[in-house]
Amino acid sequence: MDDDKTADAAFAARIEVTLSSLENLRSQLGAASRSEISPEELVRSLGDVWRAERPLLTQVAAAVLESLRVQALQQAYGWREQITRAIDAQAKPKQR
What we know:
Helices cover 93% and strands 0% of the residues. The protein is mainly α. The chain is elongated, with a radius of gyration of 24 Å. It starts with a helix and ends with a helix. The relative contact order is 0.06.
């Protein structure tokens, strides 16, 4: 149980670091749009953030996509049930 809490705390801390890195990158994007930093500096910063944060960003993206996949499947199954009920309702009057 303590191992799970420790792992969760470490993951939360890693997310905070990543969010901070992304916020810094966002600031640099703004600075680049105002020509306060060169495109080369921006590219270098983007590469640094990507190399440092890629594992976590990939993990978070995979989790988000899985969640969206589950939601889409649930919606599709719901639509299938609605269509099946509608088809069954249309077929019943013809059987009389």
